[in-house]
Design brief:
The complex is a heterodimer of chains A (298) and B (421).
Chain A lengths: L1 H23 L2 H22 L32 E2 L3 E2 H37 L1 H16 L2 H12 L3 H28 L2 H8 L4 H37 L11 H7 L9 H28 L6
Antiparallel strand pairs in A: 1-2
Helix pairs in contact in A: 1-10, 2-3, 2-10, 3-4, 3-6, 3-8, 3-10, 4-6, 5-6, 6-8, 7-8, 8-9, 8-10, 9-10
Chain B lengths: L2 E11 L9 E12 L4 E5 L6 H8 L7 E6 L3 H12 L3 H11 L6 H7 L3 E4 L13 H12 L4 H14 L16 H12 L6 E5 L7 H18 L2 E6 L2 H7 L2 E6 L2 E7 H6 L4 H8 L43 H13 L12 E4 L3 E5 L3 H11 L9 E7 L2 E6 L8 E2 L5 E2 L8
Parallel strand pairs in B: 3-7, 3-8, 5-6, 6-7
Antiparallel strand pairs in B: 1-2, 1-4, 8-9, 9-15, 10-11, 11-13, 12-13, 14-15
Helix pairs in contact in B: 2-3, 5-6, 5-7, 6-7, 7-8
Chain lengths: 298, 421
């Protein structure tokens, strides 16, 4: 019995090893992973050890009204400064934490709600399915940004509420994906085989259908992490979210807007930080898909 | 008796559509039996209801009507059949409520799952691609509570050896296996709880010939070792004649003939079986019977015997209806006997057994029928032509619905030719 167990664990280990080797054979994914890790490490450091990065005020922007006009990049300000005298480099370091956090919150909440609803709706069929899908139709009939603005307006225009509003408009796409995938998997013979083997509805739904639904969901999550950072920044950029000096990439990009003709770096650097993250997360998503699909492992 | 189906019927409702609702009569009024340790073959062409029958027997789909009696003592089954011929609903109900799997609650049915299972045709979609072979084979044991944890894992290794696969395969994923190996895994799964009844739905159709032979031999060995009653669904006569003890032949949702393998293959009695057996390549017994037409649309199957429109030996009372006869009569009157039907007049079926040939004389129509009877078999069902309101009124004889007629030892045929009068 004991040997069998170690045999089993050894096998587990072997499996993780294959997963890693599959992921690392995709060069783009590795590059993406490195960039994402840099963002994540930065976010964690700002959260827990801000002094390690030499940040005195990690959760707010520090203005310098003595010299508010944007300064070009120099030795003391690697990315230059933006209005009003805010050092862009340290601000971007601080902002990554905020954007990453909200983006994760929005996407994971949306994906969770959407996937569960989608799988249930596909599995239950009938009225339940009809009901859930008509709700997603309602969400899809209104442009998501407009809808998010409306919901955000109702909830109150704060950063937290805005994230919640985005999560509310973000789940329907996951519900549709999960449902579509689940519908095709539901008809496969292994589901019938499971029923013939005495497995109940819950087991079939969560052990048979869900694992086969997840891969495209993961890919969608990775794509959306970047998109939500973008959307969030856009909302901050257009000034929809009143900002009390919270370091956020979109808000940061909007600060130097009046000087963009003479000081392009004020928009360029925060914008690049957003784009780079969106790109890296996409690359990782690609690699993740390879790992999750057993057919690509061999 | 391991499992016995009585009057088993399954209609699949059609949803929506402009023409209103209907139902596909996939299986209608079927009786089948499988004894302990017996291999019973079910043959028939695609769409004849074989797979539906298999799923009904396992309770995977609910029948529209009829009973599936599982593990019923011989005397009680006999009593049920007697009650059925005497139309004694009370006794039938009494026995069915105790043995029919269609009456079992979800919990009882789950307990029964340990005793019956199914193996599917396509080894590529019948195994969950994200599960390891070990988990796949374990599933019936765990789900039915037969064995769990390490005991179940140990049993998986034994089963793998039983089906001729190395133990290490427990850690593989289905995509790492060939079709034949997957089918072995599927077999290991289906026998993991040592069931007494197994439905094999075209177990070898998706495999190449050498893998087919291996799987069939394996099935035979497994059957002998564990005394499992097998229902082998296939369209391949060769497979059935190699494997089965008894055979049922299905056509258009009905069992047309049943009996011991050797006697059916060597002496088929139902005209459809005769055609089916004669179509086997390399068969030297008698001329090949080539059937005309196609299998019927099961939303509106032919009346009487479902096979009658294609039957080479069809008789006058096999199920001809006014619609069928009117169609052929009109075809004749507009073709070979052009001119008999006046411009704008039609051949109109009236009800099920009467046809009005508008503006025609009874005498002429009678002559046409007499002339063509030999060629056009549906005309044989006409017994009277007389002058009617505005034309010739053609009357058809009432058709009979064939029952199962006992012919030789253990043989049953659903054809009026074998009805004893």
């Amino acid at each position: 019995m004991e040997t069998q167990k170690t045999e089993y664990e050894a096998d587990r280990f072997r499996e993780i090893k294959t997963s890693l080797s599959v992921f690392f054979s995709n060069k783009g994914a590795v590059v993406g992973l490195v960039i994402v890790l840099v963002y994540v490490v930065d976010a964690l450091l700002v959260q827990f050890f801000p002094q390690a990065l030499g940040l005195k005020h990690p959760y707010t922007l520090v203005s310098n009204y003595v010299n508010p006009v944007p300064q070009p990049p120099s030795a003391s300000y690697p990315f230059g400064t933006t209005f009003p005298g805010v050092d862009l480099f340290t601000s971007i370091l601080k902002a990554v934490r905020v954007d990453l956090g909200y983006s994760l919150f929005v996407v994971l909440l949306g994906a969770f709600i959407g996937t569960v609803l989608g799988v249930i709706s596909a599995f239950a069929g009938g009225i339940v399915d009809e009901f859930v899908m008509r709700i997603t139709d309602i969400f899809f009939s209104i442009p998501y940004l407009v809808l998010a603005l409306a919901i955000g307006f109702v909830l109150g225009r704060t950063l937290d509420n805005m994230a919640l509003a985005l999560a509310i408009v973000w789940w329907p796409i996951y519900a549709r994906y999960a449902r579509g995938q689940a519908l095709s998997i539901k008809e496969m013979t292994f589901v019938e085989a499971a029923r013939a083997s005495g497995s109940g509805g819950g087991k079939i739904m969560f052990r048979h259908i869900l694992p086969n639904v997840l891969p495209p969901i993961f890919v969608q999550i990775s794509l959306d992490l970047g998109t939500v950072v973008l959307v969030f920044s856009v909302l901050a950029f257009i000034g929809f979210i009143p900002n009390a000096n919270v370091p956020e990439l979109g808000y940061l990009a909007s600060l130097g807007l009046n000087y963009v003709a003479t000081a392009p770096w004020t928009v360029l650097f925060p914008g690049a930080a957003i784009t780079l993250f969106a790109l890296a997360v996409n690359l990782v998503g690609d690699g993740l898909r390879d790992v999750l699909d057993p057919r690509r492992r061999s | 008796m391991l499992i016995a189906a009585r009057n088993l019927t399954k209609f699949f409702e059609l949803r929506g559509g402009l023409t209103g609702k209907g139902a596909v009569q996939a299986v209608s009024d079927v009786d089948v039996e499988v004894r302990e340790g017996e291999i019973v073959g079910v043959v028939g062409e695609s769409g004849s209801g074989k797979s539906t029958l298999g799923r009904l027997l396992l309770g995977l789909i609910a029948p529209t009507s009829g009973e599936v009696l599982f593990d019923i003592p011989e005397e009680l089954l006999q009593k049920y059949d007697e009650a059925r011929s005497a139309n004694d609903k009370k006794t039938m109900e009494e026995i069915a409520s105790k043995y029919s799997i269609t009456r079992k609650s979800g919990r009882e049915l789950r307990a029964l799952r340990r005793r019956m299972n199914m193996m599917f045709q396509d080894p590529y979609s019948s195994l969950n691609p994200r599960w390891r072979v070990e988990d796949i084979i374990m599933e019936p044991m765990v789900s039915t509570g037969y064995l769990t944890g390490n005991e179940a894992r140990k049993r998986v290794r034994e089963l793998l050896e039983e089906v001729g696969l190395p133990r290490e395969f427990a850690y593989r994923y289905p995509h790492e296996l060939s079709g034949g190996q997957r089918q072995r895994v599927a077999l290991a799964r289906s026998i993991s709880t040592l069931p007494s009844f197994l439905v094999l739905d075209e177990p070898t159709s998706a495999l190449d010939v050498s893998a087919q032979a291996q799987i069939l031999q394996l099935l035979k060995r497994i059957r002998e070792r564990f005394r499992i009653g097998l229902l082998l669904i296939t369209h391949n006569i060769a497979v059935v004649s190699y494997m089965s003890d008894r055979i049922y032949v299905m056509y258009a949702g009905k069992v047309v003939e049943g009996g011991p393998k050797t006697s059916i293959i060597s002496k088929p009695q139902h005209p459809y079986t005769v055609a089916l057996i004669s179509a086997v390549p390399g068969n030297s017994r008698g001329p090949r019977v080539i059937l005309r037409g196609e299998p019927p649309n099961l939303v509106d199957p032919p009346k009487g015997c479902h096979f009658h429109p294609r039957c080479p030996m069809v008789m006058d009372n096999c199920g001809w209806t006014a619609k069928e006869v009117a169609e052929e009569l009109e075809f004749l009157l507009r073709g070979r006997y052009y001119g008999m039907l006046k411009e704008g007049s039609k051949v109109v079926p009236q009800g099920e057994l009467e046809i009005l040939v508008e503006g025609a004389k009874a005498e002429e129509v009678r002559k046409v029928i007499e002339e063509e009877k030999e060629e056009v078999k549906s005309l044989r069902s006409i017994y009277e032509v007389r002058e009617g309101n505005g034309g010739a009124l053609v009357k058809l004889m009432r058709y009979d619905i064939p029952g199962m007629y006992r012919t030789d030892e253990g043989r049953e045929v659903s054809c009026l030719i074998y009805r004893k009068t």
